[in-house]
Specification:
The complex is a heterotrimer.
Chain A (H helix, E strand, L loop, with lengths): L1 H23 L3 H17 L3 H8 L1 H4 L2 H19 L1 H29 L6
Chain B lengths: L5 H11 L4 H28 L4 H21 L3 H8 L1 H4 L2 H14 L5 H8 L5 H22 L4
Helix pairs in contact in B: 2-3, 3-6, 6-7
Chain C lengths: L3 E2 L3 E3 L5 E9 L14 E2 L10 H19 L9 E6 L5 H10 L3 E3 L6 H14 L5 E8 L1 H8 L15 E2 L2 E8 L6 E6 L4 E2 L8 H20 L8 E4 L3 H14 L7 E3 H5 L2 H4 L5 E2 L1 H17 L5 E9 L3 H5 L5 E10 L1
Parallel strand pairs in C: 3-4, 5-6, 5-7, 8-14, 12-13, 12-15
Antiparallel strand pairs in C: 1-2, 2-10, 3-9, 7-9, 10-16, 11-16, 15-16
The chains are: A mainly alpha, B mainly alpha, C alpha/beta.
Chain lengths: 117, 149, 334
């Protein structure tokens, strides 16, 4: 059941983005920014965490999940460190993802080169 | 040329552009869903290995980022993405691809200002807007909940 | 006395002659419908160099040397090189000319540069400032993608209106005298902006410019499309070509003999090139193979070659500007 839930909701988020690409001429970069920001806002409004409970990776793997992790990190940071947590909480929670992306980005740039299409 | 109206022309052009949106939609749904299923598999496995929930989430992200980066390096990811569209862009795999692809592409411009700087040329906005909105949201949350200093 | 007819069409009484021409293309182009017409295929896109930009430079150099060889001249016989490319500051041409050491006037007309260089070269020869000139331009899919769009490995989706930048170059030697084909007339285009902003629909941005120039030429020369064997546009692609047909018919002109180099060079069904080819190298490689070879064989005797260019940059489009376009026309006869 968790797998079906993940598929249904994750696919749903991607499908919405695809409709935005095809019908609004929004560039992918804008859609990604929209998704991250939406994830942050929905989390602060208390709406996203319940979705994570139901859909698991279906809600955390898409970029809204990145926003969700940032916002949860900030909320946790505020609880632990007060005002300082507003600034430090987000990246603390997302450190693994961002560091991995940067490190692997560098590593793969060392190993591979772009190929002709 | 006597007869030309910009407005009419633009109308005519917008009529001509038809993306195969139903096909795109199905592709995006299936590939995006499949990536999330893979994520769920990694998450479940990590939890079974005894990792706490948050760490299991981190392991999931790291694994997906690694796989996406590797497929980007091997020149496979863009071939999937060609069909999948938002299905590979929206999951964290798209974020990884957006970092790895310019890093590889701009190697010729050097490792500092090529790889180092251009790495964020596509993914940068995601980080910027994610962090800024979380800080603003956090400030409001802090004020409303009356948190301690 | 001015050498013009009508409002603005140039005539070249000395009839500069194309004495040598050469085309060199990438692997994808060499698998397309025109594969048997090109002179050289480079295989892997690096062409033995370590960057796409250097590979593109080498394309220009190779095409130029090929054209000179065919015209049985040597480098020192060339009085001037007219040409350019798509990259910032025209580096492909600049670096090619660093080794060729020919007097050089760099041109930028986006994908219209092949026609622009033919016009500039013909004016130069007709003004008797020299005996032989080179007209050449190039584009490379990989160097254009990284400058104008995304990294090659970025997982994006191309809409159906998108075009595929041709990897290739064409060059020709224009001389004061020779056996032809001859450049007889030219119409220099004006910058036309139809307000199109979609960077993935260059054909739509360029079609009005093509219509504008063609109408001006037909009016000046008092001719109709039927007076020519073929009319070749540069790289409107299938979508831009349909739009041009529509625009022409709005102006009561029918052109059954209209062909487009971008539409000819790829098979969009099997090669996944969507609306067709684009880039300076598209019209350059098709002109200097398929078109001029057919003229030499007398299969075509009188044609119009009209290369079209979209004159935007990543900066202008980020600032919300629409895409201005230009089309230059030359009449070639044998």
């Amino acid at each position: 059941m968790p797998y079906l839930n993940a598929f249904l909701f994750g696919g749903f988020l991607c499908a919405i983005a695809q409709l935005l690409i095809d019908f609004t001429k929004m560039t992918p970069a804008r859609i990604l920014v929209l998704y991250v920001s939406a994830g942050v806002i929905l989390t602060f409004l208390g709406l996203y965490n319940p979705l994570v409970e139901i859909f698991g990776a279906g809600a955390t793997v898409p970029l809204t999940g990145f926003g969700n992790a940032l916002a949860n990190g900030v909320i946790k940071g505020i609880g632990e460190k007060g005002l300082l947590g507003v600034i430090s909480g987000g990246l603390t929670a997302c450190a693994a993802g961002i560091s991995a992306a940067i490190f692997f980005g560098y590593l793969f740039a060392l190993i591979f080169s772009s190929k002709e299409k | 040329m006597q007869h030309f109206s910009k407005k009419e022309y633009q109308k005519q052009v917008s009529k001509q552009e038809k993306s195969p949106w139903i096909k795109n939609l199905i592709w995006a749904y299936c590939v995006g869903g499949a990536i999330c299923v893979l994520g769920q598999g990694i998450l479940t496995y990590a939890k079974q290995m005894g990792l706490p929930k948050e760490d299991a989430g981190c392991v999931t992200s790291i694994t997906l980022i690694f796989l996406s980066g590797l497929l980007t390096g091997l020149g496979v990811l863009d071939k999937i993405a060609k069909h999948a569209g938002a299905g590979t862009i929206v999951p964290i795999t798209g974020f990884a691809n957006a970092i790895v692809s310019p890093a590889m592409e701009f190697k010729n411009e050097g490792f500092i200002l090529g790889v180092g700087a251009k790495m964020f040329v596509i993914a940068g906005p995601v980080i910027v807007y994610g962090i800024c909105s979380s800080v603003i949201g956090g400030l409001i949350y802090y004020l409303i909940t009356g948190g301690r200093l | 006395m001015t050498k013009t007819i009508g409002k603005r069409t140039l005539i070249f009484p000395s009839r500069p002659s194309v004495n040598g021409f050469y085309s060199v293309v990438g692997e994808k182009e060499a698998q397309g419908p025109l594969k048997d017409w090109f002179d050289l295929t480079i295989g892997e896109g690096h062409f033995g160099e370590d960057s796409w930009e250097k590979a593109e430079s080498k394309l220009i150099e190779t095409a130029t040397m090929g054209a000179i060889e065919q015209s049985k001249l040597s480098l020192t016989d060339i009085n001037c090189f007219f040409g350019g490319d798509l990259l910032n500051q025209c580096i492909s041409a600049n670096y090619a000319l660093r080794s060729l050491q020919i007097p050089f006037l760099g041109l930028y007309g986006a994908c219209s540069t092949m026609a622009e260089s033919l016009i500039a070269g013909s004016v130069f020869l007709d003004g008797e400032f020299g005996k032989n000139v080179i007209c050449s331009t190039s584009s490379h899919f990989c160097s254009a993608e990284r400058q104008f769009r995304f990294p090659l490995e970025y997982g994006g989706q191309r809409p159906p209106t998108a075009q595929w930048t041709v990897t290739g170059s064409g060059a020709c030697v224009l001389s004061k005298t020779g056996e032809g084909p001859y450049i007889t007339h030219a119409t220099i285009g004006k910058v036309i902006d139809a307000g199109i902003t979609d960077l993935n629909n260059m054909g739509a941005a360029m079609a009005p410019a093509a219509c504008h120039t063609l109408c001006a030429f037909l009016e000046d020369t008092n001719t109709t499309p039927q007076d020519y064997d073929k009319i070749f546009t540069g790289d409107l692609g299938s979508i831009g070509k349909d739009l041009l047909r529509q625009l022409l018919s709005d102006n009561a002109i029918t052109a059954e003999n209209l062909e487009d180099c971008g539409d000819l060079i790829f098979d969009s069904e099997t090669q996944d090139t969507h609306a067709g080819g684009s880039g300076c190298g598209c019209s350059a490689s098709v002109l200097n193979s398929y078109i001029l070879k057919q003229m030499k064989q007398k299969k075509l005797k009188k044609i119009l070659f009209m290369a079209t260019g979209a004159l935007m940059s990543p900066t202008s489009s980020l600032q919300g500007e629409s895409i201005p376009a230009i089309a230059h026309l030359v009449q070639i006869e044998i």
